[in-house]
Amino acid sequence: MEKPFVYITRKLPEELLEPLKQVATIEMWPHDDQPIPYDKLKEKAKKASGLLTMLSDQIDASLLEASPHLKVVANMAVGYDNIDVAAAKKNDITVCNTPDVLTNSTAELTFALMLATARRICEAEQYVKEGKWINWSPFLLAGQDLFRKKLGIVGMGRIGQAVAKRAKGFDMDIYYHNRSRNEHAEAEYGATYLSFHDLISSCDYIICLTPLTSETVKLFNATVFKEMKDTAIFINVSRGAVVDEAALYEALVNKEIAGAGLDVFEKEPIQTTHPLLSLKNVVALPHIGSASVATRWKMGELAVENILAVLQGSKGKTIVE
């Protein structure tokens, strides 16, 4: 009996794929630093029973409908806005993601980004490396404290709760906005639910952790930034498209807010000519929220386990419903 064919859209360690090699024929895009072109992926998907994909891969209705053997798409990410889930269901294709395993790593990165932006860490590092530090001054590169400040979390899911847990160590007052109340977060971390308007207008730090949906596209726009404190710091580790980047730039230039820490952008990778990169009060990272070695390995393992389960006639471990 011929083994099913599985295509992997980015180069992964061979050891990670050993369990899959026992039951399937594997082919892998040979690059780890560039995505497979859409037309090439569509060609491979036509004969594939399984796809192991990345967030940068477009898995749309056209590709899914042209893949008669496809049974499972395992996205190596917690997000899945790159996949047309409705079209997958229509074609009886299981879609899986990798939740939970990246929660703590992403929360750590979120907190590091908040600290770096508030205390001007990246700006200070460049100041030293460029030989500008020739004297000490009382207010040289002075930033903002986190201690006992108001933290507003938009999207109190697993990662939001992990951020709240860390914020307790800084004695921060924790507020959140969510589609529904999170009673566990309120009981465990003392988080207080606020309307979106009340949160953005009252908090010192605002962290965006909301998923990208039709309702959250450009959720953070010019009107929202104008409502924030002029000392507020905005952090985005969800999806770039939830922010109107032109409006964010104007808000920073006009000093409507104090700074921004961004791990995600609307178009990735971001170009060096992007206006936001010209601002000293912006800390920009290359979408590395979950990028610890251990976490990325666990994400790969879970994606492999999901494909194996479906190909062997079981349900995937983490199915997108």
From TrEMBL:
Keywords: Oxidoreductase
InterPro entries, per the entry: D-isomer_2-hydroxyacid_DH (IPR050223), D-isomer_2_OHA_DH_cat_dom (IPR006139), D-isomer_DH_CS (IPR029753), D-isomer_DH_CS1 (IPR029752), D-isomer_DH_NAD-bd (IPR006140), NAD(P)-bd_dom_sf (IPR036291)
GO-annotated cellular components: cytosol
Gene3D superfamilies linked: NAD(P)-binding Rossmann-like Domain
Family membership noted in the UniProt record: Belongs to the D-isomer specific 2-hydroxyacid dehydrogenase family.
Domain D-isomer specific 2-hydroxyacid dehydrogenase catalytic: 6-320
MF terms in GO: glyoxylate reductase (NADPH) activity; hydroxypyruvate reductase [NAD(P)H] activity; NAD binding
The keyword Oxidoreductase appears for this protein: yes
Protein name: D-glycerate dehydrogenase
Superkingdom classification of source: Bacteria
Annotated D-isomer specific 2-hydroxyacid dehydrogenase NAD-binding domain residues: 111-289
Record keyword Oxidoreductase present: yes
